[in-house]
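Propose amino acids for all 694 sites.
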């Protein structure tokens, strides 16, 4: 059965690339089965050995174990994300349970944990280097946080809490999807379509076709439809209808009601935290973050919130005066905000995609990202058309350093297609490491890193042109990619982007800054027909347009982060009887303007309740932005966006260190001090530049 399964045979393509051309969906289940067995056998050897535990025979051996499972999983999840099929989706549903059960079997292995715990207890006396010490601490913590320390009935109860949470979070997500698909705002004539630009009409037509609704346009509650509708529709009555439906997802009586499910999840999380000895779930979740505790998160939210309220009030005044000038008689309500904000943006900054996009040709922006990596880190990207890839649109590159040595492989998959999920992301087929078993040759392994984007491909014979947001996304994902490619650690589990969740967006968000460097723009953003560099005046307008609306975005985001933190910081075992009332009262006390609203209300807040792992963690985007704004400020202070000494430190402490350093220490080593929040506030226009100087 297994001898002709390409997933289980040695991979002979360059740098361990998988034999994509021979892999079929039906190969995965038997391969997963064999790989899980092999992994359990490896762990059995570690825990059953007669030798007393040592770092190498237990911790380093644990890091070396599970390689077959890791490489098969990497291929599988890359394909299900970027080139899926009904067959692969069916496999995905079938293997989710067994893979989760396998994970829990690994982390609940009492004999293995006993060896790790014994080493952890004497960690000061083992003569470990810094990275070994970090690995021991991380592995021990992973076991502890998965419940390995629990005994007897607590152990059984923990397992059942985790199973119930997995079921409830799945139901929560399906209920949100149900309410999004259930709603249809059908637009039948020109009067109902008033104000909608072509791209919204095209998407609404497609939504109608997907639902076999015939010759109409349909607005669903998918973000990519409802947000443009609220932005452009001239029909206030229809905007209100869409807004009310969008913000009440999860709050309807019936089988898709999330109000009780969210409460049950909160109750179970409180119990999970209590089993770990914490007073509330936020304390459990934050113990393993860079922030470390609730107070550090609260301090950041408190810095930002009052300033964002001031900024949003300024924006409201601008919208009101535009509305008055147009003779519009109403007060601005939540369903009017985006509409009037767009009117003000158009009037003040006159930024039009048709004018901007010709400067952002896809290939030129890829070249810009590579060029910055060359100037900062000495990297060179050489196309390799001969590498085996999973789709003809994927471009493969070998990456070399300034000395000409091979650093890794980079695969870039830029275009949208129906077999690819939406969004943009970085992933890996292999993490850089130097902990390869002797049986596999013992050589160090170079990283194989992927970037996926969802850009609309240009018509045949036409170039693909990006919006500025698209170009920023390209740089963002490439920043994650560099975090994988530049990794320079010994142990696989500490490699690349496998870092704490409030640190992982630092390398990506930081890299976006180089796109905004005027010199980079002038060099690479050239008009597709004339080759002329982008005019300074347009760069300025783009910058100003981006700053407008930051108050609105910041208030909506921060309101959701505050609700997340509040609901997970409750120390009572029993959650509030009425979550919606709890939320309303909280936001009333915070002074959230009704005309602004939240990014996500609790009853449909998927980051928190659908198992994606951001419970008590929605703050992380803002946290990382503190780091990236302050981090890039170092280059501003040096007066050179490519300052060689800073770039060297940035590489060493941030992009190359993976999880081998504690993140606070890594940032301080690069920056020479702890981060400050001022550059973030300035970047978002929440304080004036001269106020900072004062
Ligand atoms: Zn990211």
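Proposal:
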């Amino acid at each position: 059965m297994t001898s002709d399964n390409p997933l289980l045979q040695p991979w002979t393509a360059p740098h361990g690339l998988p034999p994509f051309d021979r892999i079929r969906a039906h190969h995965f289940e038997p391969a997963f089965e064999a790989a899980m067995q092999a992994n359990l056998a490896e762990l059995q050897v570690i825990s059953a050995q007669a030798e007393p535990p040592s770092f190498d025979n237990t911790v380093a051996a644990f890091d070396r174990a599970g390689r077959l499972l890791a490489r098969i999983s990497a291929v599988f999840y890359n394909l299900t994300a970027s080139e899926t099929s009904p067959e692969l989706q069916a496999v995905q549903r079938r293997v989710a349970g067994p893979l989760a059960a396998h994970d829990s079997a690994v982390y609940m292995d009492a004999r293995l944990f006993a060896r790790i715990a014994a080493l952890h207890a004497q960690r000061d006396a083992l003569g470990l280097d810094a990275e070994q010490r970090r690995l021991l601490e991380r592995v021990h913590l992973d076991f502890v946080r998965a419940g390995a320390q629990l005994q007897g009935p607590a152990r059984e109860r923990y397992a059942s809490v985790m199973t119930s949470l997995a079921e409830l979070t799945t139901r929560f997500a399906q209920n949100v999807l149900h309410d999004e698909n259930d709603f249809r705002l059908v637009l039948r004539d020109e009067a109902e379509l008033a104000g909608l630009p072509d791209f919204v009409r095209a998407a609404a037509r497609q939504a109608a076709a997907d639902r076999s609704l015939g010759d109409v346009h349909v607005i669903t509650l998918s973000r990519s439809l409802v947000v443009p509708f609220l932005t452009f529709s001239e029909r206030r009555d229809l905007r209100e209808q869409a807004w009310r439906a969008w913000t009440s997802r999860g709050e309807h009586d019936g089988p898709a009601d999330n109000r009780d499910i969210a409460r049950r999840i909160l109750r179970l999380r409180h119990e999970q935290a209590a089993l770990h000895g914490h007073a509330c779930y936020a304390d459990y979740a934050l113990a393993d973050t860079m922030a470390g505790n609730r107070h550090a998160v609260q301090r950041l939210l408190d810095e930002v919130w009052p300033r964002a309220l001031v900024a949003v009030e300024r924006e409201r005044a601008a919208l009101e005066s535009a509305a008055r000038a147009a003779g519009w008689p109403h007060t601005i309500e939540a369903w009017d905000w985006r509409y009037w904000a767009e009117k003000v943006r158009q009037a003040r900054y006159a930024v039009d995609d048709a004018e901007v996009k010709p400067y952002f040709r896809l290939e030129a922006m890829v070249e810009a990202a590579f060029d910055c990596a060359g100037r900062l880190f000495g990297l060179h990207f050489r196309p390799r058309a001969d590498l085996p890839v999973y789709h003809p649109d994927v471009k493969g590159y070998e990456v070399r350093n300034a000395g000409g040595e091979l650093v890794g492989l980079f695969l870039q998959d830029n275009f949208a297609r129906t077999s690819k999920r939406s969004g943009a992301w970085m992933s890996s087929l292999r993490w850089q490491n130097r902990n390869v078993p002797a049986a596999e040759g013992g050589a160090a392994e170079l990283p194989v890193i992927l970037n996926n984007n969802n850009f609309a491909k240009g018509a045949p014979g036409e170039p693909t042109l990006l919006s500025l947001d698209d170009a920023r996304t390209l740089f963002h994902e490439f920043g994650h990619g560099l975090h994988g490619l530049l990794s320079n650690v010994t142990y696989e589990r500490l490699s690349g982007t496998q870092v704490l969740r409030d640190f992982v967006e630092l390398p990506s968000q930081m890299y976006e800054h180089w796109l905004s460097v005027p010199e980079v723009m002038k060099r690479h953003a050239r008009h597709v027909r004339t080759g002329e560099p982008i005019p300074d005046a347009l760069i300025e307008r783009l910058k100003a347009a981006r700053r407008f609306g930051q108050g609105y975005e910041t208030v909506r985001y921060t309101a959701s982060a505050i609700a997340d933190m509040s609901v997970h910081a409750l120390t009572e075992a029993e959650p509030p009887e009425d979550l919606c009332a709890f939320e309303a009262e909280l936001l009333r006390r915070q002074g959230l303007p009704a005309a602004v609203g939240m990014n996500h209300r609790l009853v449909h807040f998927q980051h928190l309740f659908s198992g994606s792992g951001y419970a008590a963690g929605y703050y992380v985007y803002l946290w990382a932005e503190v780091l990236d704004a302050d981090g890039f400020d170092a280059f501003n202070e040096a007066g050179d966006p490519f300052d060689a000494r800073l770039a060297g430190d940035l590489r060493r402490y941030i992009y190359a260190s993976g999880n081998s350093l504690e993140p606070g220490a890594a940032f301080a080593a690069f920056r020479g001090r702890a981060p400050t929040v001022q550059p973030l506030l300035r970047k978002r226009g929440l304080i004036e530049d001269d106020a900072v100087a004062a």
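The first helix runs from residue 28 to 48. Residues 476, 480, 505, 508 surround zinc ion (CB under 6 Å).
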